[in-house]
Amino acid sequence: MALTSVLSVMLRPDKARAYQQCVAKIADRARAKKDPFRWTAHQTVGGEVGMIHFVSEAPDWASIGARDATPELLILRLFGETDGARMLDEMSACTMSARQTTGRDRPDLSYPPDTKELARERAPFAVVTTIRARPGQQDACEELIRKIAEAIPKVDDPAHISTYQALIGDLRAYWTVRPLRALGDLDRHAQPSDLLSRAFGAGEGGLVYRTGLEAMESVERSLVILRPDLSNAG
């Protein structure tokens, strides 16, 4: 079972630059030491700005257990007890809140890019949609996401989505990731309601869309940008 962990950090507006400088040092040290722990950093530029998300992947829980369980342990290992502790204090003073979420891949709810395409290029932007289902309404939420994934190739829409379901964190949460090579890609991507109507007809597509929205307690779409300088992606 493939797993994806996301550490989401809300920065203090006046401390954002200092925090990013610390993370850049960590990423530089990890790359220099060829550290096996890999992550990508993504900054929110549309939606709830002031957020940075650190994303790491693992094939299973045993793999997660074999690596540093917390960012603190990684920093102490890379910089030693004295310098590492000092850096942790600096970073703590820069943050307002942090949240760790781990989810499993849901390929049945996805239409991801081709693996060769993924290996060739990391998308510099992505649209991330976070969904919280109402109690007992997970099936209806999943049906909406599934139908959107099915509709994309039916109408030759250029979009791709990968879907994840939370296992640690909010257990009624899902999130989808739509990679973008450029912001102009959004001009060519159909909105979900139009996509469903074109693929399945106005009647069926509209019903799936309305039922899915009613099953959601909340839904939020964000635009994020990849930060290679804050990443150790290998």
Q: Main sheet: which strands, in order across?
A: 1-3-2-8-5-7-6-4
Name the helicity range.
25-40%
- CATH domain class of the largest domain: Alpha Beta
* Mean pLDDT across all amino acids: 93
Helical element count? 8
Task: Please report the total strand number as a whole number.
Answer: 8
Strand content: 25-35%
Rounded to the nearest angstrom, the distance between the terminal CA atoms is 22 Å
Domains (count): 2
CATH topology of the largest domain: Alpha-Beta Plaits
Write down the secondary-structure element order. Answer: EHEEHHHEHEHEEHHE
**How would a textbook summarize the main sheet?**
8 strands, antiparallel, barrel
Unreliable spans are none
Task: Describe what this molecule looks like in 3D.
The protein is an alpha+beta fold. The chain has two domains: 3-103, Alpha-Beta Plaits; 105-224, Alpha-Beta Plaits, CATH 3.30.70. It is built from eight helices and eight strands; from the N terminus they run βαββαααβαβαββααβ. An eight-stranded antiparallel β-barrel has the order 1-3-2-8-5-7-6-4. The longest helix has 17 residues, at 16-32. The chain is elongated, with a radius of gyration of 19 Å. It starts with a strand and ends in an 8-residue tail after the last strand.
Features:
eight-stranded antiparallel β-barrel, 8 helices, single chain, 234 residues, 30% strand, 2 domains, Alpha-Beta Plaits, alpha+beta
Q: How is this fold's topology laid out?
A:
Blueprint: E1 3-11, H1 16-32, E2 40-46, E3 51-58, H2 61-66, H3 71-79, H4 81-92, E4 95-105, H5 115-120, E5 125-133, H6 138-154, E6 162-168, E7 173-180, H7 192-200, H8 202-214, E8 216-226
Antiparallel strand pairs: 1-3, 1-4, 2-3, 2-8, 4-6, 5-7, 5-8, 6-7
